[in-house]
Amino acid sequence: MRIYLDFEVRRVECRSCGKVKRERLDFLADNPFYTKRFAYYVGRRCRAATIKDIAEELKLDWHAVKELDKQYMTAQLAKAGRPGPKVIGIDEISIRKGHTYRIVVSDLVRGRPIWFGGEDRSEASMSAFYAWLGARKRARIRLAVMDMWKPFRLATQAHAPQAAILFDKFHIMRHLGEALDTVRKREYARLSGRDRRYIKGPEIHLAVAQGEPHARRQEGVEDVAGGQQAAQHGLCPQGELRPVVEL
């Protein structure tokens, strides 16, 4: 059931500036066609469903629902206040085609995003977050988790030098995997004949795995050249890295 309110809004002439202005009614949302209570209801519903679904359910225009949802989120942010995180996670998301990025910063202790902004993923955009956070609150940051993107690291070191930086393991494993692939290809090209039997194409199939019989391991180590041996100690049977250090 829908309820429509029909009322008159007074318009007054300002004695100071001479302009005609409409009176402000506290119960109306920023969009004067809806009440604040209705905007709050739409915002709450958007937390559990898509804007398209809510628009169809309430028989509203998609853009109207979007604006009411934005008003709701603005009100919630004002209630929450500016955060003071101790552990943050930094990442970027693509908002459209053509490598257009925005930065997302999350409070990893509370498990929620706290900042979305910047013009790209540059050091200047990352610095905008720390400027927004303020000197007192960014001094409380103890750990920053990020990928290995240099501008994020430089901005963090400049504005929160007390914070430890932790690179996520997926990027570390990727770089280590690329380095091992280079070693594999180089060793395969360098070796020949019988010494190649442990290398098939780009992979090394011999692994020095925990629990493997010592005799078998020793046989493999003796038969493979020194450079190849060094690469093998970081491999599991499928040619993947074994996490020597728990990441």
Average pLDDT works out at 78
Low-confidence stretches: 205-210, 213-247
How does the overall form come out from the CA principal axes?
Answer: elongated
| Biggest sheet: strand arrangement | 5-4-3-6-7
The CATH topology label of the largest domain is: Nucleotidyltransferase, domain 5
Record the SSE blueprint.
Blueprint: E1 11-13, E2 20-22, H1 36-46, H2 51-58, H3 62-80, E3 87-96, E4 100-107, E5 112-117, H4 123-133, H5 135-138, E6 143-146, H6 150-159, E7 164-167, H7 169-190, E8 199-200, E9 203-204, H8 214-223, H9 226-232
Parallel strand pairs: 3-6, 6-7
Antiparallel strand pairs: 1-2, 3-4, 4-5, 8-9
Plain-language structure description:
- The protein is of the alpha/beta class and 247 residues long.
- The chain folds into 3 domains: 24-80; 87-167, Nucleotidyltransferase, domain 5 (2-Layer Sandwich), CATH 3.30.420.10; 170-232.
- It has 9 helices and 9 strands.
- It has helices at 36-46, 51-58, 62-80, 123-133, 135-138, 150-159, 169-190, 214-223, 226-232; strands at residues 11-13, 20-22, 87-96, 100-107, 112-117, 143-146, 164-167, 199-200, 203-204.
- The strands form 3 sheets. A 5-stranded mixed beta sheet has the order 5-4-3-6-7. Strands 1-2 form a two-stranded antiparallel ribbon. It has a two-stranded antiparallel sheet with strand order 8-9.
- A hairpin with a 6-residue loop joins strand 1 (11-13) and strand 2.
- Helix 1 (36-46) crosses helix 3 (62-80), helix 2 packs across helix 3 and helix 4 (123-133) packs parallel to helix 6 (150-159).
